[in-house]
Design brief:
- The structure is a single chain.
- The protein is of the alpha/beta class.
- The protein has nine helices and seven strands; from the N terminus they run αβαβαβαβααββαααβ.
- β1, α2 and β2 form a beta-alpha-beta unit.
- The protein is globular, with a radius of gyration of 17 Å.
């Protein structure tokens, strides 16, 4: 297929917006490809903020949660800095046991009302990733809750206590975009943004060092992810999203 034929088969992501909120479960979730898109968007003058449900405190086997939490929080802030993101916030969900439910939806709806994004970005809530790997429980819970909270945030009568706290409804979320989905609907050309994305993932030094052997180096891994998507889109590097219009 020619690039034009590939693009026709998988349309390009709509970028006619100005504010995005990236919502994921753990530090490092956004660094497996999504950070390349973030770097592109920040370069376009868009406002992008990060919201992490947990501090990733259960992610390093050799460190207790009390030791790992501040370390991983700082690694996420460092990684965000490499792609131009200054606002990085954390909820108080427990890493590894995040539960989908009203409490999580309320927390995310509260954040959406505060940040007033036009786009919410996350990683897939499907049971499998693109490529067939089994998705992790926290990712699924947070992804689905982010999708639902994007609608909840605009309804005055869902979580009315938020309005009582001074957070008026926000119905301006136009779409929710998930990377890593086995059912992508749109693509985004991120050619030229590989190096900042690699630096963003490399910032998670202690987390990556604690992973079991055989984990690819950040540059190799992101070349595989973004290069493979680029082949599908007919460009050097790309990121694929499953998009839900609201």
């Amino acid at each position: 297929m020619t690039p034009s034929e590939i693009n026709a088969a998988l349309p390009l992501l709509d970028e006619s917006w100005g504010r995005a909120l990236c919502v994921v479960a753990h530090p490092d979730d956004l660094e497996y490809g999504t950070a390349a898109a973030v770097h592109r968007w920040v370069g376009q003058g868009k406002q992008v903020s990060y919201l992490l449900a947990t501090r990733g405190e259960a992610g390093i086997d050799g460190l207790s949660p009390q030791e790992a939490a501040p370390l991983r929080e700082q690694e996420e802030r460092d990684g965000a800095h490499h792609v131009g993101v200054d606002v990085v916030e954390f909820l108080d969900q427990r890493d590894g046991v995040v539960e989908y439910g009203l409490g999580l939806r309320r927390d995310l709806a509260r954040a959406i009302r505060r940040h007033r994004p036009e786009v919410v970005v996350g990683i897939t809530h499907r049971e499998r990733f693109m490529g067939g790997g089994t998705n992790q429980a926290d990712h699924r819970a947070v992804g689905l809750a982010a999708l639902d909270a994007s609608k909840d945030a605009g309804n005055r009568w869902i979580f009315p206590e938020l309005a009582e706290q001074g957070l008026e409804p926000w119905s301006g979320v136009r779409m929710v975009c998930f990377s890593g989905s086995p059912e992508p609907t749109h693509g985004l050309d991120v050619t030229g943004h590989l190096e900042p994305a690699v630096a963003s993932l490399e910032a998670h030094r202690q987390y990556l060092a604690g992973l079991s052997g055989g984990h690819p180096a950040p540059a190799e891994l992101l070349q595989t992810i973004l290069g493979g998507a680029g082949e599908r889109l007919g460009v050097e590097h790309a990121l694929l999203f499953e998009v839900f219009d609201l």
